Amino acid sequence: MDMYAKFGCSEKASAIFEKNEACNVVSMDPMIANLAQNGAESEAFRLFIEMQKNGECSNAFTIVNLLAACSRVASLNMGKHIHTWSIHRSLMSDLFVSNALIDTYAKCGKLSLALNIFDRSEKDDVSCNTLIVGHSQWGLPKLSMMPFTGCLSACANLSASKQGKEIHGVFRRLLSTLHFLDNSLLDLYSKGGMLDTASKIFNRIAQKDVASWNTMVLGYGMHGQLDVAFELFDLMKDDGVDCDHVSCIEVLSACSHGGLVERGKKYFQMLAQNIKPQQMHYACMVIFLGVLVHCLNLLK
Questions:
Q1: Are residues 139 and 101 located together in one domain of the fold?
Q2: Model's pTM, two decimal places?
Q3: Domain total for the chain?
Q4: pLDDT averaged over 10-residue windows placed end to end, the chain, 300 residues
Q5: Which end of the chain, C or N, has fewer beta carbons within 10 A?
Q6: What is each CA distance from 47 to 105, 144, 266, in whole angstroms?
């Protein structure tokens, strides 16, 4: 049965399968997967429905193969059916299943559904690439670029600079006119240590908001260039941009990493005049000063 299915002989494989009275999930899952992989999509779908009626449960591997079959034949209804079944069987936490669903909806032209899965699921570079390809295939009006902030953020958090650069390159012309994506690009390149590229993007932004400044301060701070981080923080104030709670954490953390006690105290007092310090700001100072006391005790 497995041999016939793998060689694309779906009718012979099905005939053997039908004669096997001991068919259960152990034999049905491989059969469905093989049919789905070898161009017998309709037969794979039929067996899956039959399996459900018998109360059997497919595994994630079979679901991924079924969704790939849905993508090939653009079977939106079956894709939705499998999606619903996957939710009931708690398979949506499986990265391969969620990526396969993104691909199915994207191939069927249902980009909003693909984005919904993307936003709710664990992400990797495959998730981002699948979404990009889907948008490319169905056209890319400017409003549909909004979801790519999520792609860029995912690449930044995964340290997937290569994939992020590919996104940037593919959509460079559109990105140059869509400033809401600039902060996502700053996040990508600064977290990836590509500070020169981040700086070029930052300098071209006509109206920098607090998120733009915060991202650059964090980027230089986390990569040990504290002088540049402090300079940017001071320039933010000179530019008339008000600091927020994130700004406070970032500059205090930079002072802590550099052991700059007096500068840390000065920034804390200055920031306390503009915003109400929260528990996390006090905690940052306590840790900062606590480490200093510990170091002094060690020196003694």
A1: no
A2: 0.50
A3: 3
A4: 55 58 58 79 88 80 92 94 93 94 92 87 78 68 52 63 61 52 81 88 88 91 90 90 83 79 79 71 66 48
A5: C
A6: 22, 37, 70
